Amino acid sequence: MKLRPNPALERQLRAERQQRGTQTGADYRAYIQVRRGDFSSRGRSHYVLSALIDRHHDVLSDLELHTLWHLQRLNPTDVREGMPLLFEGVEPEFEWSEHVLGTLAIAKVLGFPHPSHNSQEPKRMTTDFLVTLHGGTRVAVHVKYEKDLDDRRNKELRAIEESYWLRRRVRFLVITEADLNRTAIGNLGMFASFDKADVNDITDEWLSWIAMAARSLPMSSVLKAVSSKQGVPYVALINRVKYAALCGLLIFDLTQGVLEWNSVWPPMRLGCFSALRDDSEVVSHD
Question: Which pTM value belongs to this model?
Answer without folding.
Answer: 0.85
